[in-house]
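Renewal narrative, Specific Aim 1. Our central claim is that a sequence can be written position by position from structural information alone. The example that follows is taken directly from our test logs and has not been curated for this report. It begins with the structure tokens describing the chain, in the order in which they were read.
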């Protein structure tokens, strides 16, 4: 299977840092320039043809229907990622790219990967590919639903993909649809005290099940823009690890 990269949105980095000041350090960030994060970019927006670039790479993965695309749309502030998942067993990546440095060709890439957990056949194809992509990534959002009860499939997928502690250190476990946690409000105006208590317990369970520190788990709602700023701050912390500077959020 060939790798098909579809750039759905292109912009300068300041557009994103204006929305999220916690990412402002990226405007002068020493993006690593190694073969590991080197890509060939063709982009009509900047009139690039086979341009060698280097990217900070944020991957978004998870099962179909968990809200990966809507999460990315919320982060970039535009409806550019299709919310319908691509066909099974295709290597189609949908990417939003933000240029950090024009002369050096440095970028931040936010990438939506195909959903997993649909079939054993599809997952067998994806596992090897995903692990290869992880080597090139600097942060991974693994999206699950806050309101689900059974995480056995996600746990199995997680163990297949994230084999060691180095890979897991890149991960932010993103619990989407936090507003759907019991007891559900018919008209959402914010989380109730009962919902917050249930979400805290959920985070404790997720931390134990996936063996991930609670500081790397965020509950949010892409639809209601709940805690998305906190999610982005967690992404920022992961990206900082790719450089040699320390910036206070």
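The sequence written for that structure reads:
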């Amino acid at each position: 299977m060939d790798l098909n990269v579809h750039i759905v949105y292109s912009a300068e980095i300041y557009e994103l840092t204006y929305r999220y000041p916690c990412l402002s350090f990226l405007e002068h960030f020493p993006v690593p320039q190694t073969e590991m994060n080197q890509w060939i970019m063709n982009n009509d927006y900047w009139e690039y043809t086979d341009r060698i670039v280097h990217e900070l790479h944020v991957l978004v993965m998870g099962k179909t229907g968990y809200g990966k695309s809507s999460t990315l749309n919320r982060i970039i502030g535009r409806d550019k990622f299709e919310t319908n998942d691509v066909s099974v067993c295709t290597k189609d990546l949908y990417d939003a790219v933000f240029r950090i440095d024009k002369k050096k060709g440095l970028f931040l890439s936010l990438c939506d990967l195909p959903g997993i957990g649909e079939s054993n056949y599809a997952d067998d194809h994806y596992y090897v590919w995903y692990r290869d992509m992880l080597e090139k990534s600097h942060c991974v959002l693994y999206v699950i639903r806050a309101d689900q009860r059974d995480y056995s499939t996600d746990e199995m997928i997680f163990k297949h993909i994230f084999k060691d502690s180095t890979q897991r250190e890149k991960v932010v476990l993103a619990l989407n649809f936090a507003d759907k946690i019991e007891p559900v409000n018919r008209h959402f105006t914010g989380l109730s005290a009962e919902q917050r208590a249930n979400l805290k317990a959920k985070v404790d369970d997720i931390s134990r099940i996936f063996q991930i520190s609670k500081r790397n788990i965020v509950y949010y709602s892409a639809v209601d823009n709940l805690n998305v700023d906190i999610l982005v701050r967690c992404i920022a912390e992961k990206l900082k690890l790719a450089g040699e500077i320390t910036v206070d959020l």
